[in-house]
């Protein structure tokens, strides 16, 4: 946004004040509203959301087959039982979130069509001033708040990431990114190439295979998948026994988390054994070792990137039926008719879908200042991946890669409410994380160790993210099983929190 844009925009005259301002009405922001309502009653708050509806990821993505890749017993909130199949469609997730909103009348706190553009902290007033552009009128709405709760997610919602390949301009067909799926896209009987190997590509290919002439999944390198039935035997049994849904939710959640913990630890301790098990799972659908070796045997060890669950092996069923195929190769360039590969082979396509990922968006494209100085988050050190040194009264929700995002959104919800209540008791207006004397010589590194987890969007955007230290307080451990005990036990009077 330019200065002229700012000046020419009409400004709503009234500045509204709230104790807490939540950015975004995705699963984290709606969860935040629930936690404030239940754990810090009497706190005034508003949720500002740029889109015209709640749901975030689940409203933005409308490509055929869009569904979760983790189970909803853990992706669902801990406080609202999930009663459907473990893997859910976006529509089912939106219905669930809609019920959470309705149950507590949270809608009255949410303002849709508000794109936040700036957030300025004043130490003199101990306040954030937040400006948002209202959709439709272009009017600037102004808010002040004591505390900012950032639930903006991790990628830019308006547009996905598409690499620049030579010859893209020569291609005569249509290029589509799944994040901005055109609702009028007619793929009936057409030949489609889907570029990508992640969960999106794996979901999209079987969903359109039945209608397309043929669909080819073009991947540069293979990914791990876990095929399995979209059901949870324990949940089904407990339901048969007429156990209360609240209990089922808690029991199944614990069982899923127990199994995931085991799987994660085994992936680290015995990666070769886990790798063979995963490959056997794929082979059970594809039949031959050759097919698995060629297109489904990754070179990295399990869990360095998210592993997608493939319900009922639908991706592999598409392949064995002949409606879909997989090509592992690199793109030389686009041609008029399709894609020329490095191997010399050409893939003809009427439509090319670039399921090539996201554009990392660290803080919702909001211009932050602290006492009029622009804030660069890369200059800060993170406090447990949720606060930043030198940044007062701000919490940031960044979930887990290897476990459901919402598990952390809930843990952070508990932490924020505890912190807000503590500040009230202490009569503090401001809390700012700061390195303690014993942390001053700590070695600082990137937000995430690439040896540990290295998806493309994170590698492309690492320079934008805060730094991490080598002590548990100063890094995002990505370990739910540690954090579920550590976060509730944080001593709020630790010198890492400076109150004023
Ligand atoms: C297709 C897909 C499938 C996924 N499946 C899973 C899964 O199965 N399990 C899992 O754990 N994770 C999954 N993820 C990751 C997923 O994004 C998170 O789990 C979760 O939905 C993030 O929720 P959130 O509320 O934090 O952020 P988001 O869903 O990204 O929502 C953020 C909201 O903030 C709003 N916003 C951002 N900036 C501004 C601004 N400046 N002003 C106003 N509003 C703003 C956005 O419009 C959006 O509505 C998936 C991601 C994708 C893309």
Question: How are the elements arranged and paired?
Answer:
Blueprint: H1 3-8, E1 11-23, H2 27-39, E2 45-48, H3 57-60, H4 72-75, H5 90-103, E3 110-111, E4 114-122, E5 127-134, E6 140-150, E7 174-176, E8 191-195, H6 199-209, E9 214-219, E10 225-228, H7 233-240, H8 245-269, H9 271-286, H10 289-295, E11 308-311, H11 314-320, E12 324-328, E13 331-334, E14 338-341, E15 346-348, E16 351-354, E17 367-370, E18 373-374, E19 382-383, E20 387-388, E21 394-396, H12 405-426, E22 431-433, H13 456-461, H14 480-486, E23 497-499
Parallel strand pairs: 1-2, 1-6, 2-3, 4-17, 6-21, 7-16, 8-9, 8-16, 9-12, 10-11
Antiparallel strand pairs: 4-5, 5-6, 13-14, 14-15, 17-18, 19-20, 22-23
Bound molecules: flavin-adenine dinucleotide.
Flavin-adenine dinucleotide (FAD) binds at residues 23-29, 48-51, 56-57, 61, 68-70, 75, 114-116, 151-153, 157, 200, 364-366, 397, 399, 404-405.
Summarize the structure.
The protein has 500 residues and is α/β, with parallel strands linked by helices. The chain is built from 14 helices and 23 strands. It folds into two domains: 3-157 and 360-499, FAD/NAD(P)-binding domain, CATH 3.50.50.60; 162-356, FAD/NAD(P)-binding domain (3-Layer(bba) Sandwich).
């Amino acid at each position: 946004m330019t200065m002229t844009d700012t000046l020419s925009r009409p400004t709503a005259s009234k500045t509204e004040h709230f104790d807490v301002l939540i950015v975004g009405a995705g699963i984290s922001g709606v969860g935040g509203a629930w936690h404030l309502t239940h754990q810090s009653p009497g706190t005034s708050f508003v949720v500002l959301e740029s889109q015209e509806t709640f749901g975030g990821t689940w409203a933005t993505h409308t490509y055929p087959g869009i569904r979760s890749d983790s189970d909803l017993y853990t992706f669902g909130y801990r406080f609202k039982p999930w009663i459907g199949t473990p893997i859910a469609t976006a529509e089912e997730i939106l219905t669930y979130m809609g019920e959470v909103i309705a149950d507590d009348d949270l809608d009255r706190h949410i303002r849709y069509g508000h794109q936040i553009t700036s957030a300025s902290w004043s130490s003199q007033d101990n306040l954030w001033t937040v400006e948002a552009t209202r959709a439709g009128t272009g009017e600037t709405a102004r808010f002040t708040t004591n505390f900012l709760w950032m639930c903006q997610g991790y990628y830019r919602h308006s547009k996905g990431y598409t690499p620049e390949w030579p010859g893209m301009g020569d291609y005569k067909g249509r290029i589509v990114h799944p994040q901005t799926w055109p609702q009028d896209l007619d793929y009936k009987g057409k030949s489609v190439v889907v570029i990508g190997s992640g969960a999106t590509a794996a979901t999209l290919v079987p969903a359109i295979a039945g209608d397309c002439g043929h669909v080819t999944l073009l991947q540069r390198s293979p990914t791990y998948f876990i095929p399995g039935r979209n059901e949870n035997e324990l949940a089904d049994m407990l339901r048969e026994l007429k156990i209360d849904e609240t209990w089922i939710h808690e029991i199944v959640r614990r069982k899923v988390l127990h199994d995931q913990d085991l799987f994660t630890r085994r992936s680290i301790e015995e990666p070769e054994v886990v790798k063979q098990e995963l490959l056997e799972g794929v082979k059970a659908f594809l039949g031959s070792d050759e097919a698995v070796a060629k297109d489904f045997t990754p070179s990295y060890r399990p869990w360095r990137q998210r592993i997608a669950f493939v319900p009922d092996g639908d991706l592999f069923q598409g392949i064995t039926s002949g409606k879909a195929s997989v090509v592992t190769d690199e793109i030389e360039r686009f041609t008029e008719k399709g894609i020329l590969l490095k191997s010399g082979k050409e893939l003809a396509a009427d439509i090319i879908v670039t399921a090539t990922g996201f554009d990392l968006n660290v803080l919702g494209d909001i211009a932050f200042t602290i006492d009029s100085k622009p804030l660069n988050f890369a200059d800060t050190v993170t406090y447990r991946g949720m606060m930043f040194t030198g940044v007062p009264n701000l919490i940031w929700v960044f979930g887990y890669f290897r476990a459901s995002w919402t598990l952390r959104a809930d843990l952070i919800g508990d932490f924020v409410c505890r912190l807000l209540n503590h500040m009230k008791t202490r009569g503090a207006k401001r809390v700012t994380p700061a390195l303690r004397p014993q942390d001053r010589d700590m070695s600082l590194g990137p937000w995430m160790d690439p040896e540990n987890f290295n998806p493309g969007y994170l590698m492309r955007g690492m320079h934008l993210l805060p730094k991490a230290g080598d002590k548990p307080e100063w890094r995002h451990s990505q370990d739910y099983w540690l954090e579920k005990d550590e976060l509730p036990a944080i001593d709020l009077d630790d010198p890492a929190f400076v109150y004023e």
